[in-house]
Each structure stands twice: as C-alpha cells, then as structure tokens.
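Subject: Sanity check before I submit

Could someone independently write out the structure tokens for this chain? I want to compare against mine line by line before I put it in a report. The sequence has 360 residues.
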Amino acid sequence: MSERERFERLRLIRSPRIGPVSYRQLLARFGSAGEALRAIPHLAERGGGRASVADAAAVEREIAATRALGGRYLLMGDADYPALLDQMEGAPPALIVRGDGALAARPCVAIVGARNASAAACRFARSLAQELGQREAVVVSGLARGIDTEAHRGSIDTGTIGVIACGIDVIFPPENAGLQEDVAARGLIVTEHPPGVQPLARHFPARNRIIAGLALGTVVVEAAPKSGSLITARLAGEAGREVMAVPGSPLDPRAQGCNMLIRDGATLVQNGADVMEAIGGFDPRMVRQGSFDFVGEPVSSDVAESERAAVVALLGPAAAPVDELIRLSGLSPAVVQTVLLELELGGRLERHAGGRVSLT
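---
Independent answer below. Compare away.
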C-alpha cells in the first residue's frame, strides 16, 4: 500500500457518515480510497442528500499530532493489523496504537467487569491476570475503574493491552493517569479515535467490540445484568470467541450478570488453568473469515430508480435486517447494498448491530 493510498484511506474513514461497512463497500467498488472519495458526493446525491469528505489538511494535522504523541497507525490490510480483530464484524478500518504492537499478535484473553467491583472481585481479577501472564497469555481490558484496572495491574509485567474510548492523549478515568502511561510504556494502548477525542458514552460500546475482537476469549469477573461487560461478552460470542464467567453469590447484584452468562451457556472459570483450557479448544473455523477480502459486501454500479424505490419502501424507523430487505425486495444483494450505501452517504440511513438498518 503506497503512502498516498494510506493517507487517502485514513481520510476516507474520517469522512462524515463513513463507517466500517461503507468503508469496505466503497473500496470494494472503486478499488482505491482516492476514487471512493471522489465518488462520495455523487453517491450521496443519489441517496437524497449531500455529503462532504474529510479535509486533507485536517487529516495531515491529525497524523502530525499522533506522531508527536508517540502513536502510529495500523490500517486494515496492513500486515501488522491484529489478525483476530480483522475478522470481527465492524472492525475499525484504522487504529492508533502506542507501545509494543507485537503483543496483539500473541494469544490474548480479555478480562472485563464492573467499575464498582467488590474488593474480592478486584483481587481475583488481578490474580487471574497474573496467572494468565505466567501462562504466556496477553491480557486485554478497557482501562476503566474496577475490574479493568486490576486486570492491567496484574498483567503489566507479562503483557497487557488497554483499549480506550478516546484519543491517546486523553486520560480516562483521571485517577488512571499513571496506569495508562505505564501500559503505553510497557504494554500497548489501542484506540480508533484521533488525538483530542473525549470519551463520550457512545464510544464505549464501540471500544468493547475491539476488546472482544482482539481476544480468543472474554472473561467476565463481575457484572450487573445491564452492563458494558455483558455487551463485550455478547460481541465475543457473536464473533465465535469463547465466553467465560466467574460465578458469584446470587445475593450480590454485581454477580447477577456473570451467573446469567453461565446459565445461558458461558464457560464457568475459577482460575487461569480453566481459562487456558477453554481457549485451547478454540476452533478458528468458528470465526467469521475475510472481513477485508472485499467479498460479502456486494455493490453495484447500476441501480434503476424503480429498484431504489422498492428498497426505500421497505425501510422505516424500526431497524430491519439487510437479509430481510433482500428477500422481500426480490433484488440482488448487490443492488440492495448499493441503495443502502447511497442512503447512508445521503444521511438518510442508520446502521445498527447485527446487520440491521433503519431510516433516520
């Protein structure tokens, strides 16, 4: 990949309304990021709106700021882009990393849990992370309060990856400033956000998909029934990764999420040996393959107005599966995907988890 193409790909993903799905579709259709950038205004117009592309000077400033902070880019398609994450649905086309990138190529286990975790759970998470490190596994977590913090502390000497929901120059939570710097110096910090981006609420579910995507399996130590940790576990399971949970007292609300996971089929684990045994049986065939092979995301260069109208008529404010739109419209996947891409670029379509879409 030439430096020019790398720059244009970063500019493409930084453009408004471009997400992982539309990014892949545009590259699949046009072959290069430069051609895709030139086509965006026309495609958006066909989708009933207008769209602009990221300013080249702004992207150049971002690159300069990233380098000044000691960060570097990993673009999807690079040889050192994390292989397991590459297979994750909705994997970020561009990562910014700081630290030892080789850690992401080693066997990784995610440890997540409650921010308001009990003292016993924090001690267990730290001990589990230490044991996994001794067994040559790298521990991945989110640098949040509670379980995440202890997971990083337990694995800082053997290999840890912190995935953050902000720019690499932003510290969150503030009390983890020293820990985040330590992880960057001795482990690896990963984000999909440019420098200066603050940790907004909507960024955390997206961060969780990176945590799940980097790891062979995810261990939930303590979590409430409706928590971000269970989102991470769900994403891991949907990607064909091992989902593990530490059982807790039914009298403690913080253990209910873990107990629910075990009831629903997650592997019960009590120590590092249990975790290594679970991921040792990991079958690569269960993982979705070819996320960046430019297959499975068909687009067409020729869509009739009647076909476009037929797809739009099936859409509404409630999210609908793309497969159902293809079935009900009777149109080819290429045509339906093209109409959805045009609507998205035109600001009229929103994409949801699980391959579902709705009109904005």
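---
OP: Matches mine. For the report I'm noting this point. Confidence is low (pLDDT under 50) at residues 289-296.
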